[in-house]
Amino acid sequence: TGTISSLQRQMEIQESELRRIRFEKELLQKQIRERDIQLQVVCNKFCSLTEEQRQEEAVGMMEEQNHNFQQVVTEQESQLAEQNKLISELQGTISQLQAEVVSTRLNLLKEKQAQREIQSQVEALQHRELQSRVALDLISSKFERYRNKIIQATFSVEGSQDPQAELTDDEVLEATQRIINERMEFQQMLKNKGSK
Fold this sequence. Notes:
CC-FHA_domain; CCD27 protein; coiled coil; single chain
């Protein structure tokens, strides 16, 4: 945004300079027109003199006026050429600045689009994280209930003693395996005795 503002300020300065030069050009053209009018006045003045006077005065005045007018025209043509060159350069600079503004705006749009995509990905990841936490809490709750049932079933067997401290998962597994082994041995004994 700062770059765009800077470029726009430069464009405004260049356009102001362009307007100033165009104004000076119009002023020079106006001066040329005024010189033409003066020349016309002199010509009209000559027309009112006698033929001989006209010729004498015409030669002197025309030479002087021609010399002066030629100098003015040369100077003004030189100034016009310089101003036209400067106008062309300013227009080129303005075009370049406009292109830079467009390019900067395009880059800003791309950055905003990338930022929106990243924000969308972040929101999706946050949503997935929340879902994972909910699923983890659910699994943890189910596992804890299952573990408690195993402990209850393991230590509710006749002759078992209640645990004195909180059991580790390995201790629960070992106690469960012991009960399974005992029941399998008991079942084998019953088979051996012919009992159903």
